[in-house]
Amino acid sequence: MNPYISIIIPAYNEAGKIKDTLENVIDIKEINEVVVVDDGSSDDTAKIASSVKSDKIKVFKLEKNSGKGYALNYGLKIAMKNADIIGFLDGDLGSSSNEVKKLIKPILDNEADVIIAKFPPAKKKGGLGFVKGLAKQSVLDMTGVELDATLSGQRIFKKEVLEKFDEIPFGYGVEVGMTIDILKKGYTIKEVLVNMTHSETGRDLKGFIHRGKQYYHIKKVLKEKQKEWR
Protein backbone atom coordinates (compact mmCIF):
# COMPACT_ATOMS: atom_id res chain seq x y z
CA MET A 1 0.00 0.00 0.00
CA ASN A 2 1.36 3.40 -1.01
CA PRO A 3 2.01 5.94 1.79
CA TYR A 4 -0.45 8.82 2.13
CA ILE A 5 1.35 12.07 1.30
CA SER A 6 0.04 15.44 2.47
CA ILE A 7 1.54 18.78 1.42
CA ILE A 8 1.01 21.88 3.59
CA ILE A 9 1.22 25.28 1.90
CA PRO A 10 1.18 28.31 4.23
CA ALA A 11 0.34 31.38 2.15
CA TYR A 12 0.18 35.09 2.89
CA ASN A 13 -0.91 37.50 0.13
CA GLU A 14 0.06 35.09 -2.64
CA ALA A 15 -2.92 35.79 -4.94
CA GLY A 16 -0.54 36.23 -7.86
CA LYS A 17 1.14 32.82 -7.55
CA ILE A 18 -1.00 30.43 -5.50
CA LYS A 19 -3.01 29.16 -8.49
CA ASP A 20 0.11 28.29 -10.46
CA THR A 21 1.68 26.71 -7.36
CA LEU A 22 -1.33 24.47 -6.78
CA GLU A 23 -1.94 23.52 -10.39
CA ASN A 24 1.60 22.18 -10.60
CA VAL A 25 1.38 19.88 -7.57
CA ILE A 26 -2.13 18.42 -7.83
CA ASP A 27 -1.26 16.16 -10.76
CA ILE A 28 1.67 14.52 -8.96
CA LYS A 29 0.22 11.05 -8.42
CA GLU A 30 2.07 10.38 -5.14
CA ILE A 31 0.43 13.40 -3.46
CA ASN A 32 -2.94 12.63 -1.84
CA GLU A 33 -3.75 15.92 -0.13
CA VAL A 34 -2.78 19.59 -0.36
CA VAL A 35 -3.62 21.70 2.72
CA VAL A 36 -3.54 25.43 1.99
CA VAL A 37 -3.48 27.68 5.06
CA ASP A 38 -4.16 31.31 4.17
CA ASP A 39 -2.44 33.20 6.96
CA GLY A 40 -4.90 36.10 7.22
CA SER A 41 -4.20 37.48 3.72
CA SER A 42 -5.65 40.84 2.74
CA ASP A 43 -5.90 39.74 -0.91
CA ASP A 44 -7.79 36.90 -2.65
CA THR A 45 -5.32 34.12 -1.86
CA ALA A 46 -7.94 31.83 -0.25
CA LYS A 47 -10.56 32.53 -2.92
CA ILE A 48 -8.13 31.79 -5.76
CA ALA A 49 -6.84 28.65 -4.04
CA SER A 50 -10.42 27.42 -3.62
CA SER A 51 -11.08 27.98 -7.33
CA VAL A 52 -8.50 25.35 -8.35
CA LYS A 53 -10.50 22.25 -9.22
CA SER A 54 -9.14 19.25 -7.35
CA ASP A 55 -10.48 16.94 -4.65
CA LYS A 56 -6.96 16.95 -3.16
CA ILE A 57 -7.08 20.63 -2.14
CA LYS A 58 -8.35 21.77 1.26
CA VAL A 59 -8.27 25.53 1.92
CA PHE A 60 -8.39 27.13 5.38
CA LYS A 61 -8.36 30.87 6.01
CA LEU A 62 -7.09 32.25 9.32
CA GLU A 63 -8.77 35.36 10.70
CA LYS A 64 -5.54 37.29 11.16
CA ASN A 65 -1.93 37.09 10.05
CA SER A 66 -0.13 35.02 12.70
CA GLY A 67 3.09 34.03 10.94
CA LYS A 68 4.43 31.04 9.05
CA GLY A 69 5.03 28.88 12.14
CA TYR A 70 1.42 29.30 13.28
CA ALA A 71 0.10 28.49 9.79
CA LEU A 72 2.26 25.35 9.61
CA ASN A 73 1.04 24.18 13.01
CA TYR A 74 -2.55 24.74 11.90
CA GLY A 75 -1.97 22.73 8.73
CA LEU A 76 -0.24 19.95 10.65
CA LYS A 77 -3.32 19.34 12.80
CA ILE A 78 -5.18 18.49 9.61
CA ALA A 79 -2.41 16.65 7.77
CA MET A 80 -1.38 14.42 10.69
CA LYS A 81 -4.80 12.73 10.73
CA ASN A 82 -4.14 10.70 7.58
CA ALA A 83 -0.60 11.29 6.35
CA ASP A 84 2.42 8.98 6.52
CA ILE A 85 4.61 11.59 4.83
CA ILE A 86 4.18 15.37 5.13
CA GLY A 87 5.69 18.13 3.04
CA PHE A 88 5.99 21.90 3.47
CA LEU A 89 5.93 24.11 0.37
CA ASP A 90 5.80 27.89 0.03
CA GLY A 91 2.89 29.49 -1.79
CA ASP A 92 5.05 31.56 -4.15
CA LEU A 93 6.79 28.74 -6.02
CA GLY A 94 4.51 29.04 -9.05
CA SER A 95 5.05 26.39 -11.73
CA SER A 96 8.34 25.33 -10.11
CA SER A 97 6.31 23.67 -7.31
CA ASN A 98 6.28 20.62 -9.60
CA GLU A 99 9.93 20.09 -8.57
CA VAL A 100 8.67 18.69 -5.27
CA LYS A 101 8.71 15.34 -7.08
CA LYS A 102 12.50 15.37 -6.60
CA LEU A 103 11.99 15.51 -2.82
CA ILE A 104 9.32 12.81 -2.69
CA LYS A 105 11.34 10.08 -4.42
CA PRO A 106 14.25 9.95 -1.91
CA ILE A 107 11.89 9.89 1.08
CA LEU A 108 9.97 6.99 -0.52
CA ASP A 109 13.31 5.27 -1.17
CA ASN A 110 14.16 5.71 2.54
CA GLU A 111 17.34 7.69 1.79
CA ALA A 112 16.76 9.97 4.83
CA ASP A 113 14.12 10.93 7.38
CA VAL A 114 13.85 14.49 6.06
CA ILE A 115 14.52 15.81 2.55
CA ILE A 116 15.29 19.52 2.07
CA ALA A 117 15.20 21.36 -1.25
CA LYS A 118 18.43 23.06 -2.23
CA PHE A 119 17.75 25.98 -4.55
CA PRO A 120 20.02 27.11 -7.40
CA PRO A 121 21.89 30.41 -6.78
CA ALA A 122 19.66 33.50 -6.62
CA LYS A 123 19.27 35.35 -9.93
CA LYS A 124 19.49 38.80 -8.39
CA LYS A 125 21.78 40.14 -5.71
CA GLY A 126 20.13 39.96 -2.34
CA GLY A 127 21.79 40.44 1.01
CA LEU A 128 25.41 40.08 1.99
CA GLY A 129 25.08 36.46 3.08
CA PHE A 130 24.88 37.23 6.82
CA VAL A 131 21.61 35.38 7.39
CA LYS A 132 22.54 32.33 5.34
CA GLY A 133 25.99 32.23 6.95
CA LEU A 134 24.55 32.51 10.45
CA ALA A 135 22.07 29.71 9.78
CA LYS A 136 24.63 27.35 8.24
CA GLN A 137 27.30 27.94 10.89
CA SER A 138 24.83 27.66 13.77
CA VAL A 139 23.55 24.28 12.61
CA LEU A 140 27.14 23.07 12.13
CA ASP A 141 28.22 24.31 15.58
CA MET A 142 25.27 22.71 17.35
CA THR A 143 25.00 19.41 15.45
CA GLY A 144 28.30 18.82 13.64
CA VAL A 145 26.37 18.52 10.36
CA GLU A 146 27.10 20.89 7.48
CA LEU A 147 24.07 21.81 5.37
CA ASP A 148 23.73 24.44 2.65
CA ALA A 149 19.93 24.81 2.63
CA THR A 150 19.18 25.41 6.31
CA LEU A 151 16.83 28.30 5.40
CA SER A 152 14.85 26.35 2.79
CA GLY A 153 11.18 25.96 3.66
CA GLN A 154 10.61 23.24 1.05
CA ARG A 155 10.85 20.02 3.04
CA ILE A 156 9.45 16.49 3.13
CA PHE A 157 9.22 14.60 6.44
CA LYS A 158 8.43 11.12 7.61
CA LYS A 159 5.48 11.47 9.97
CA GLU A 160 7.47 10.04 12.89
CA VAL A 161 9.83 13.03 12.77
CA LEU A 162 7.03 15.59 13.08
CA GLU A 163 5.40 13.57 15.87
CA LYS A 164 8.43 14.47 18.02
CA PHE A 165 7.49 18.15 17.89
CA ASP A 166 4.87 19.59 20.23
CA GLU A 167 4.67 22.48 17.78
CA ILE A 168 6.68 24.01 14.95
CA PRO A 169 8.87 26.98 16.04
CA PHE A 170 7.38 30.39 15.26
CA GLY A 171 8.92 33.32 13.38
CA TYR A 172 11.57 33.47 10.65
CA GLY A 173 13.77 31.06 12.59
CA VAL A 174 11.39 28.15 12.02
CA GLU A 175 13.59 26.26 9.53
CA VAL A 176 16.82 26.65 11.51
CA GLY A 177 15.15 25.65 14.78
CA MET A 178 13.60 22.56 13.22
CA THR A 179 16.83 21.52 11.53
CA ILE A 180 18.73 21.62 14.83
CA ASP A 181 16.02 19.67 16.66
CA ILE A 182 15.75 17.03 13.91
CA LEU A 183 19.48 16.34 13.90
CA LYS A 184 19.74 16.44 17.70
CA LYS A 185 16.97 13.84 17.93
CA GLY A 186 19.06 11.51 15.77
CA TYR A 187 17.18 11.77 12.48
CA THR A 188 18.89 12.09 9.11
CA ILE A 189 18.57 14.93 6.60
CA LYS A 190 19.39 14.89 2.90
CA GLU A 191 19.56 17.95 0.63
CA VAL A 192 18.37 17.59 -2.95
CA LEU A 193 19.08 20.13 -5.69
CA VAL A 194 15.89 21.42 -7.32
CA ASN A 195 15.06 24.00 -9.98
CA MET A 196 12.58 25.82 -7.75
CA THR A 197 12.19 29.59 -7.84
CA HIS A 198 10.30 31.94 -5.58
CA SER A 199 10.00 35.62 -4.77
CA GLU A 200 13.48 36.93 -3.98
CA THR A 201 14.22 39.88 -1.73
CA GLY A 202 16.51 42.48 -3.25
CA ARG A 203 18.90 45.12 -1.94
CA ASP A 204 16.16 47.64 -1.27
CA LEU A 205 14.80 48.84 2.07
CA LYS A 206 12.10 46.16 2.14
CA GLY A 207 14.71 43.47 1.50
CA PHE A 208 17.04 44.68 4.23
CA ILE A 209 14.17 44.90 6.74
CA HIS A 210 13.16 41.34 5.89
CA ARG A 211 16.69 40.02 6.36
CA GLY A 212 17.04 42.00 9.59
CA LYS A 213 13.94 40.26 10.94
CA GLN A 214 15.28 36.90 9.78
CA TYR A 215 18.62 37.50 11.52
CA TYR A 216 16.93 38.56 14.76
CA HIS A 217 14.57 35.56 14.77
CA ILE A 218 17.35 33.08 14.02
CA LYS A 219 19.48 34.49 16.86
CA LYS A 220 16.47 34.20 19.17
CA VAL A 221 15.81 30.58 18.16
CA LEU A 222 19.50 29.75 18.62
CA LYS A 223 19.45 31.04 22.18
CA GLU A 224 16.45 28.82 22.89
CA LYS A 225 18.08 25.77 21.30
CA GLN A 226 21.35 26.30 23.17
CA LYS A 227 19.39 26.22 26.44
CA GLU A 228 17.36 23.18 25.40
CA TRP A 229 20.29 21.09 24.19
CA ARG A 230 23.12 21.99 26.56
From TrEMBL:
Q: Enumerate the transmembrane spans.
A: none
Q: Which Pfam families match?
A: Glycos_transf_2 (PF00535)
The Swiss-Prot or TrEMBL record lists the needed cofactor(s) as:
Mg(2+)
Which part of the chain is the Glycosyltransferase 2-like domain?
Answer: 6-131
Alphabetized, the UniProt keywords read: Glycosyltransferase, Magnesium, Transferase
- EC number(s) per UniProt? 2.4.1.266
Q: Does the keyword Membrane apply?
A: no
Show the catalytic activity: (2R)-3-phosphoglycerate + UDP-alpha-D-glucose = (2R)-2-O-(alpha-D-glucopyranosyl)-3-phospho-glycerate + UDP + H(+); an NDP-alpha-D-glucose + (2R)-3-phosphoglycerate = (2R)-2-O-(alpha-D-glucopyranosyl)-3-phospho-glycerate + a ribonucleoside 5'-diphosphate + H(+)
Under which name does UniProt file this protein?
Glucosyl-3-phosphoglycerate synthase
Which species is the source of this protein?
Answer: Romboutsia lituseburensis DSM 797
